[in-house]
C-alpha cells in the first residue's frame, strides 16, 4: 500500500497537471476525505430498507443517504458514513452535492414561481422560456443544431427522438395524410403506423420504455418478458487493449461491424421494415464502457447518410462534460456529427437537439403534458455558469488523465485481477477478472469510503462529478490499491 | 345575457351548497375576476412566439404566461391579460397558481437539499423517502393497494405499469429464465420477448411513448407514422344523452362493448398474442370526455379477472380529486377496483400503485435513473394537506354540481349549438355542434377572459383546479353565455 501510494505522489509531482492543482484548494464547502463509521449498509440503512421493502422492490438499493450533509464529491449516508462518490447517482450529478451556486438558485425569490407552477410548456410557456433555452441548452448545442426539445427524462427523450426520425423519414412535407393512413393509424396498422425500424447496437442502452427498450441490448434483466419490435441489431466493435498493440485487429473489427450495419440496412429494407434511424452512444456505458474510434463513428455517420437513415447520437450518459468535452461526439472531430442528439442526467432536464430538416411538420406530433420542466432549466443554466467559471472541462481532462494513468498503474500491479483500463476524461472504466471479483472489490472499497458503479459483465465504471479534482483521484486510487492489496 | 345571469343567481340562492360558500370569501391571495387588455395572443406573446418558433414547433402554443403574477384560478399572460383558467396546464395544476402553501415549501430551508440533489431513487433514496411515501402517496392509495412506484411523468408511469403486468403475466415466481429466454430477449425475439399484448379502447389516451401510444386511440395526429404493436382495441361505449332518456340503449351499448372485449381476449389468445392486461380510463379525457356506468367498469373488472388479465386503471387525468372523489374509480364502488392504478398531472409526480401480487420478482426489472423526483413528492404532501384542510373534495362536488347544472341550462338555452353536457365533480364537458363552432367559442371566450380546453372532435372540456369555487362557476357561465348570445 505504502509503495503504491508513494508511486501516485511521484506521478503527481511528475505531472504538469497536478502541480497546477496543488496550488488550488478543494472548494471550501467540501469535506477533505472519506470517513467511515459502520459497514455499508449500516444499521439505519438496514432498518429503512426493511420499511421501504413494504412499498417497493429494494433489491437495487445500496443504502439510504443524508443529502443535507453530503458535499461536493462526498456522499453521506444515514449512518454517518462519508464516501467519495464516483458514481454520482448513476452519473447524473453534474457539479457535486449541494453546490453553493445551486443553493442560491433555490433561495432567489425570483425563482420561486418557476418551481411552484409547473407549466404545460407545449401550450403555455413562461415569458423567459426562449431566453432560458438560448442561455442554457442552445449555448451548448452540438454542431449544426439550432433546435431543441426538452423532455422529462432520458427515456422520453429517446422515445421522442425516435418519433421525430420516423416522422422525418416519411417525408410528408406539409401534405395531409390519406384517409387510409388516418384510419389505419388509429388501429395500430400500416400504412398509418408503418413498419419502420431503428437500427441499434448489441450492448447498447437507450432506456427502458418499450420503444427505447427495443434498442437496448445490454442486460437480459432489462428486456425479459417485455414484448419488442423486430428491429435490426448490429455488433458494436469489441476492441482489444492496450489499443496501441492491436491497431490492425481493432481496425478490422470496426470494419466488420460497419459492414454488418450496411448489410442490416439492406436486409431490413428488403423485409419491408426500412431503417428510419440509427441510434448509438459515443461510449456504450451500461453495456460495459465499450469504446470505438472516431474513424468508426465518422464512417457510420456516412453510412447513415448514404442510406437515408437519420443518425441519432444518444448522449444521455456521455453528455455534460464528463469526457472532457461537453459532448462525447465532439471527440470525433466532425462538422456534422449527427441529425439528432439526445441528453438527460447531468443536464438535469431531458431532451434532444435536431437539425432543421427534422422539424416536425405539424404541432401535437411531438407533445406531452409537461414537455420538460423549467425549474430544471434554471438549475442547468447555473450548472453551465459554474462549468465555465471554474473551467471544469479542463479539470475533467486533467483529473481524467490522472485517473487513467492510475488505472494503468494498478492493472500493471495487479494483472491477474485488472485489465482493459480505458476512458475519456473522467469517463473511465476497468475490468475485473470476473463478476464476483468485481463485486467484491466494489463492496470492500465502499466499506473503505469509495462508492463506485458497475457496468457490463465485470466492469467497474467511474462517473465522478465534474468537480472531481486530482486530489480526489489520488484518494480513489489509494483506496482501490488498499482493496487490491488485501485481495492479493 | 341579463336573463341568464339572473337565472344563475337564482339557482345559487336555491342551492344548499351555495349558501354555504357565500359565507366564505375567495382566498385572499387570489384575484376576483378576469381582466383583459388585448386580444389573445397579444403583441408580446406574438413576438415571443416568433422567437420560440426558431427553436421549436410552436403550433400548439396558445400564449406566453406570466406565472409570477398568476394567482389561484387566474392565469396572467405576458400582455397583462388575466384569465379564469379552467384548463390548468392540461389539468395538471391541483390547487391553483402560486398557492401560499406551496410557496412555503420553497422557502423552507429544510427543503433546499431535496431540490438541489436529485437522487437516483432506485439505488440511493434519501432518509425520509419511506416516510414521505407513507404520508403522501400511500395516504391516498386506492383500495387494496399498498405498493407504489414513482416515475417522472404519465407516459413513463403507464409504460412501467405495462411492463409490470407483462412480468406478472409470465408467472416466473423466483425461477430463473432459461438460457434460450436470456439469449432471445437480447435480440428482441420470442420467447425472451414474448408476443404479449395490452387491450385498450378506441378513444383512449394513455400517452405517447411507443408502448403507451399502442394503447392510445384518440387522434390520428398522435399516431401517424409511428410503428406500433398489433394489440387488441375494443369499442368504448358511446352513451346517448340525456342518460335518463336512454337507459335501455346505453345498457345495450355497454353490453355490446363488453362482449367485444371478451371476443378480443379469446381472439388474441388464439393468435398467440395473449392479453396480459386491460388498460382503461375512468373517463376517456383526451378522446372526448366519454363516460361509462359503474356497472360497465364492474363487469369489465370481472372479465379481466375471469380471463387472467391484469386490470390497469389509468387515472393520470381523472386522479387527484377533480371528480369529487380522489380517484375516478371510487365512483364505481368496488372493493377491489384494479390491479394497477397509474397517476401523474395533479399529483405532480408520476407513478403507479399495484397489488402485492404484481410485485416484480427481481430488482432492476422496473428501473431507471431517477424513478421519480422527491421534490415533487414534497409538493404533493403539501397539496394533500391543503385538500384536507380546505375540504377541497367537497368544494369540487359543490362547484361541479353548479357547473353541470349551468351547462344543462346553457344547452337548453342554445340547443342548436350545445349538447351532451356531462361530468363528474368539476370534470365536466359539453359538445358543440361541430369543431369550427367549438373552436370559435373557445377563442371568443378566451378574449373575454375564460381559458378552456378542448378534447375529442367537438368537445369543450372543463378542468379547473380543486380551488374552483361556485363564485368562479358563475363567472365561467356568464362569459360562456355572453359568447353564445353573440354567436346566436
UniProtKB/TrEMBL annotation, chains A, B:
Keywords: Aminotransferase, Neurotransmitter degradation, Pyridoxal phosphate, Transferase. Belongs to the class-III pyridoxal-phosphate-dependent aminotransferase family. It comes from Cyprinus carpio carpio. One of its GO terms (molecular function) is pyridoxal phosphate binding. This is 4-aminobutyrate aminotransferase, mitochondrial. CDD domains: OAT_like. GO terms for biological process: gamma-aminobutyric acid catabolic process. It catalyses: (S)-3-amino-2-methylpropanoate + 2-oxoglutarate = 2-methyl-3-oxopropanoate + L-glutamate; 4-aminobutanoate + 2-oxoglutarate = succinate semialdehyde + L-glutamate.
Amino acid at each position: 500500500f505504502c509503495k503504491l501510494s508513494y508511486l501516485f505522489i511521484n506521478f503527481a509531482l511528475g505531472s504538469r497537471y497536478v502541480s497546477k492543482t496543488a496550488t488550488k484548494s478543494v472548494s471550501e464547502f467540501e469535506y477533505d476525505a472519506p470517513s467511515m463509521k459502520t459497514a455499508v449498509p449500516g444499521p439505519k440503512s438496514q432498518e429503512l430498507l426493511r420499511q421501504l421493502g413494504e412499498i417497493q422492490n429494494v433489491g437495487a438499493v445500496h443504502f439510504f443517504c443524508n443529502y443535507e450533509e453530503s458535499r461536493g464529491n462526498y456522499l453521506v449516508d444515514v449512518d454517518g458514513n462519508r464516501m467519495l462518490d464516483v458514481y454520482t447517482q448513476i452519473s447524473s450529478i453534474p457539479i457535486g452535492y449541494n453546490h453553493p451556486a445551486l443553493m442560491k438558485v433555490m433561495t432567489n425569490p425570483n425563482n420561486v414561481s418557476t418551481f411552484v407552477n409547473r407549466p404545460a410548456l407545449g401550450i403555455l410557456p413562461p415569458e423567459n422560456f426562449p431566453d432560458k433555452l438560448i442561455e442554457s441548452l442552445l449555448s451548448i448545442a452540438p454542431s449544426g443544431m439550432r433546435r431543441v426539445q426538452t423532455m422529462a427524462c432520458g427515456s422520453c427523450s429517446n422515445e421522442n427522438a425516435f418519433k421525430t426520425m420516423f416522422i422525418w423519414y416519411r417525408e410528408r412535407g406539409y401534405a395531409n395524410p390519406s384517409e387510409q393512413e388516418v384510419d389505419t393509424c388509429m388501429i395500430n396498422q400500416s400504412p398509418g403506423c408503418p413498419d419502420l425500424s431503428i437500427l441499434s447496437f448489441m450492448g447498447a442502452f437507450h432506456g427502458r420504455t418499450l420503444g427505447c427498450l427495443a434498442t437496448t441490448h445490454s442486460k437480459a434483466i432489462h428486456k425479459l418478458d417485455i414484448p419488442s419490435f423486430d428491429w435490426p441489431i448490429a455488433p458494436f466493435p469489441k476492441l482489444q487493449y492496450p489499443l496501441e498493440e492491436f491497431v490492425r485487429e481493432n481496425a478490422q473489427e470496426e470494419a466488420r461491424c460497419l459492414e454488418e450495419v450496411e448489410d442490416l440496412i439492406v436486409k431490413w429494407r428488403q423485409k419491408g421494415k426500412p431503417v428510419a434511424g440509427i441510434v448509438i452512444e459515443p461510449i456504450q456505458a451500461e453495456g460495459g464502457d465499450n469504446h470505438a474510434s472516431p474513424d468508426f463513428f465518422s464512417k457510420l455517420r456516412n453510412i447513415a447518410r448514404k442510406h437515408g437513415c437519420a443518425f441519432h447520437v444518444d448522449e444521455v450518459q456521455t453528455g455534460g462534460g464528463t469526457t472532457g468535452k461537453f459532448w462525447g461526439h465532439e471527440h470525433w472531430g466532425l462538422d456534422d456529427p449527427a441529425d439528432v442528439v439526445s441528453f438527460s442526467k447531468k443536464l438535469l432536464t431531458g431532451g434532444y437537439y435536431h437539425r432543421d430538416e427534422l422539424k416536425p411538420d405539424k404541432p401535437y406530433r411531438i407533445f406531452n403534458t409537461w414537455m420538460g420542466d423549467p425549474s430544471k432549466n434554471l438549475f442547468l443554466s447555473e450548472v453551465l455558469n459554474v462549468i465555465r467559471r471554474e473551467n471544469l472541462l479542463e479539470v475533467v481532462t486533467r483529473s481524467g488523465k490522472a485517473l487513467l494513468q492510475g488505472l494503468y498503474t494498478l492493472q500493471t500491479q495487479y494483472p491477474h485481477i485488472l485489465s482493459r483500463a480505458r476512458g475519456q476524461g473522467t469517463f473511465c472504466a476497468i475490468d475485473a477478472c470476473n463478476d464476483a471479483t468485481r463485486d467484491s472489490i466494489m463492496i470492500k472499497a465502499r466499506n473503505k469510503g469509495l462508492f463506485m458503479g458497475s457496468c457490463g459483465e465485470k466492469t467497474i465504471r467511474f462517473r465522478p462529478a465534474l468537480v472531481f479534482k486530482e486530489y480526489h483521484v489520488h484518494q480513489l486510487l489509494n483506496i482501490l490499491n488498499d482493496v487490491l492489496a488485501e485481495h492479493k
